[in-house]
Amino acid sequence: xxxxxxxxxxxxxxxxLVTYFIYTWILQITKTEALSSQIILAFIINTILxxxxxxxxxxxxxKFKDQLGFIFMIGSFIKFGFFFVFFYPTYHSxxxxxxxxxxxxxxxxxxxxxxxxxxxxxxxxRLDANE
Length: 131
What we know:
82% helix, transmembrane helix, DUF6168, membrane, DUF6168 family protein
């Protein structure tokens, strides 16, 4: 079970890092104005939160087995809350959230959410198999 958890954390880190480089590369070749500090922050925060949520599921996998889905959903709401605390004020400072501002948060959010969801499904599936 620990090996699966470590592989899952590594997968989240790897996918986030690869996506970051692909996304910034696409921005460079399309000569799109990049919000580099916001993009980096978005990837870091989303990756850390995805790993934290997965870690929480792993730690509580036996004690709160029936509530793991709710724990996952609460973690997702917390991630979304981070958007409003850390990103929304900057993006909305001029009264408009541009497409680039939206994508600089949304791409890391979705990539981490998908990777975290797949890792969580594997973790929960392994719990059912161990019964």
